Amino acid sequence: MLWKNHSSKIWERIKELNLLYVMIESILFFLIIYFYNTHIQLVQGTSGLFSSDIAYRLQTDAFLKAKLSLSSHPFGLPFDYIWTGHAMHQNWGLGVPLLRLPFEWGAQLCGWGPFPDRLTLFFYLILMVIILNVSIRRVLGTFGIGGYSAGGLLLRWYLTALVLFSPSMSDLLFRTGSNVYEEAVFYGCIYSYTLLALFWLFMRRPNDKFLFIICLFSGVAWVIRPTLIFYGVITAVLTIIYSYLGARHIRPVVWGIVGFCCGAFVDLLLNYFRFGSFFEFGYSASIDGIPVFEYPLRFDNFFDLAPFLPAAKELIGGLFFNNSWKCDLVRWRHYWFAPFNILHLLILVAGLISVILYFMLAKYRLSMGIKKNLSIRIIFFTYLWGFVSFSGLFLFYLRCPALTSRYLSDFSAAFNAVFISLIFLGLFLFSRHRRNNNWVFVILSFFVFSMLFYLNNRAFLQKKTADPDVTSQEGVKLLVSAFNKGILFESSLHDKFLCGNVYSVRGLPFQFNGWNTGDCLVEASTDIFLPAKGCLFLNYSILYDKQRPKIRVKRDFIFLKSLDSRVVNDVSKRNLNITESFCSNASYENNISLYSVAWISANKFRRGKIPIRLNWVGSADQEGYPKQPSGPSPSVQ
Length: 637
Fold this sequence. Notes:
Layout: H1 2-17, H2 19-40, E1 50-51, H3 55-64, E2 82-83, E3 88-89, H4 95-109, H5 117-141, H6 150-164, H7 167-174, H8 180-204, H9 208-224, H10 229-247, H11 251-275, H12 291-298, H13 308-320, E4 332-334, H14 342-362, H15 364-372, H16 374-398, E5 402-404, H17 405-408, H18 412-433, H19 438-456, E6 470-471, H20 473-487, E7 496-498, E8 513-515, E9 521-531, E10 535-542, E11 550-555, E12 558-570, E13 575-583, E14 592-600, E15 610-620
Parallel strand pairs: 4-5
Antiparallel strand pairs: 1-6, 2-3, 7-15, 8-9, 9-14, 9-15, 10-13, 10-15, 11-12, 11-14, 12-13
Helix pairs in contact: 2-6, 3-4, 5-6, 5-8, 6-19, 8-9, 8-10, 8-16, 9-10, 9-11, 10-11, 10-16, 14-18, 15-16, 16-18
């Protein structure tokens, strides 16, 4: 009896200090992170810590040298990088390199050399999980569920795991090599979930300083990734509205607007310093070697002509049905996993129906509930956050000239916000009618949630199809050294290039991209690196018909105007020989420019070559027609 009384006192003390719940939570936290870490191989010996994709590392190194550009030479320009006419840049934003900066700076101070890329990602992943867990714990308190109660423990870690193992996030790292493409989207998912968690914390305890911080983070969102601006805008707007409903004062509105504008201005200013325009993110000058993809990015988007219903059908198919319904128009598509499934679509529809029915049935009671009941406000604003973010992303990707699995993973936070709002609604309805059946509720709810989680997550049912593309510290140093060596090579460029001649230009792998040096035919877009001059001259022939193409020319980011053209009808060859000049008075630096030419003909929506032969191209400072370049005549097959 004495032992029983003594053990009872110990048990009461443990419950009073929440030691048992803290221990259980810590163990679950460790197991989840370890499982996640094992599958994506974040830590797998020293060779698993470094990424062989050095784009972010190069940008971080540039920051440490107080520079924004990676190089002042175009030679050695890698795939998908940007040449602005005077500097080379990476194409994936500055947000992740800024997040890497303190770790890389600290490693250099300690003399450790390059800091492991995967540990940086792992740090921000854990930080997101902790913030999400804390915010969910506080939100559950509004529904009468204790933060360290059994129900609160299960609910918090179910919702956290729902986010962590949702298909859009898990497939980004489970089924890919986690290169810079997937890594950029994954950091975007981390940031969007962090914004949602901060919004929950603000609804729980609003104040002006916290309002300013959230709106500032919302404005900075597109430094990580441009599409995050949808999450940033809706977070800032809902935070300001929520604050105004509570305070009924204009001051929080002003604080929120100032915070958001300050954050947004940071990225706009960076765009201006890098590309010369506040709203230029660099995509219109990136080099990827695919003319049919470069054309819509730099000139005209094919998919703007797509009717709404076929475009929406393709996007819905890409989101939920593994791209089952493709539109006929040209678009760059790359699918290797379905980011969502039919369950997500049902959840989205169920959320919409639930809100509509609640509006219809509650009427005045709902409006009063939003004003007086914190639980109703959290449910309502969480649903708005998810559904409006989804709508903004849907409208953006509806006309986007490129659609891939990783792009569609941007919807992850929006979908899970709608799902979590429905769970919160169920908790609210139960808390109003529950009696002494807490454990029955916990067991049944956890079973249902586990089934939904199982259906929602395909990562448990498959193995990785590719190992991460990682390397050792020595390998990273060799990659950076090779990059720096390649960009130091300088070669003189000619003012004119004649098709059929062989020009050895080292370090410019994308020279004449879209202009076939064998048969001289062109594709949708042609890229030529030339010394920066005021005018560009094109001499081309129309082979099969007399229909002249519409031609548009850009020098880096500036459009050149068509001034004049000379047409010679070659009767013997039955084709037209045309010389056109394109000029601009816009200032340019004395360096190498990327001249992009769009060939718009009757078959512009088809892949492959256009029946137009580009004979020679050249640049000059003044207007007028230069003489045809000397040299052997072009060899046409």
